[in-house]
Amino acid sequence: MIVLCKLKKSDYTDSKTYWLIALLDIIRKALKSIMIKRLSNIAETHHMLSDAQMRVRRKQFVILTLDLLVDQIHMIWDCKIKYVTFMLSLNVVKAFNQVLHIRLLHTLKMKRISDYIVKWACSFLKNQETLLRFNEQMSDMREINADILQRFLISLILFLFFNISLIEKCEALKIKIEVLNFVNDINILAYNKFIKEICKTLSKVHDVCMKWVCTHDTTFASEKYEFTHFIRKSKRFDMIISIQIESSVIKLKSDVQVLKVQLNMKLRWDAHLRQIEANHVTWMLALS
Predict the structure, then answer these.
(1) By CB count within 10 A, which of 115, 119, 147, 199 is most buried?
(2) What is the mean pLDDT of residues 190-195?
(3) For 250, phi and psi rounded to 5 degrees?
(4) pTM (two decimals)
């Protein structure tokens, strides 16, 4: 493992200012590629993952995901019953670093994944050895327990299995909600004729999420909670509301970011266009 300094950092005493580059042997890389294909094929062929889970899955692209979300909202809008639609967005804190290995391996076994794949996943997560090389100096070989690193494709697939139980529990509530999961981002779409009922629904779903957190040794970033609404005619409802989630009060926002795309309440893409223009100015200044 090689240690590289990040450029233009003011304080190099902080470990976050360095990159750790793992140099894997060729056989391990080849084996990892084989496991990615096999695990993906098994999951898709036997429908082991939920349709609500996106990314690193065949035919589950970002554009398709957004199309599905927009279609769901329009379908609710077009109902004879005039529903109002709200969405609560949750984010798992340091998702890949906090994956509980025992839970992940248990989920793979419960999904009847082949024993040899489960054993490989177990060895992938622990019993690894590495050494550090920095300024032409090398450390002694030491054993490490690997986190699920986000940059690895196999890690993204394993994380989908890790949180599949949460998605299944939310979908099993059989209430007026739609769930959209993009790895560690979870968006809960709730609809009803009455805003108070929607708030109760979202609180109920959040309670399910918190129970899952307790059994899977992870947490949600409460400061990243986002609460927004999608409606054609805002005058029909009281939009100056907030939702009480445990000890936090989440205020309603006029737009929200989903899969790096800004959505406003009327799905007119104005917020996203403003974001693109702001980014364009930044890029032009960087090139000038």
Answers:
(1) 199
(2) 86
(3) -100, 120
(4) 0.72
224 within 8 A of 235, measured Cβ to Cβ? no
> How far is Cα 213 from Cα 209, in angstroms, rounded to an integer?
6
Residues sharing a CB contact under 8 Å with residue 76, sequence separation 6 or more, in sequence order = 83, 85, 191
Q: Whats the size of the chain, residue-wise? A: 288
Give the C-alpha separation, 123 to 101, whole Å: 11
In terms of C-beta density within 10 A (0-12 exposed, 13-18 middle, 19 or more buried), how is residue 145 classed?
exposed
pLDDT for 132-166, tens place per residue?
Answer: 666 677 777 766 655 555 556 787 888 888 889 99
Residue 103 in this model has a pLDDT that exceeds 80: yes
Show Cβ contacts of residue 209 under 8 Å, excluding neighbours closer than 6 positions: 90, 166, 170, 186, 220
Nearest to 259 by CA among 49, 52, 53, 63: 63
Alpha carbon of residue 249 to chain centroid = 22
The tens digit of pLDDT for each residue in 63-90 reads 777 788 888 888 888 887 888 888 888 8
Which residue type occupies 44? E
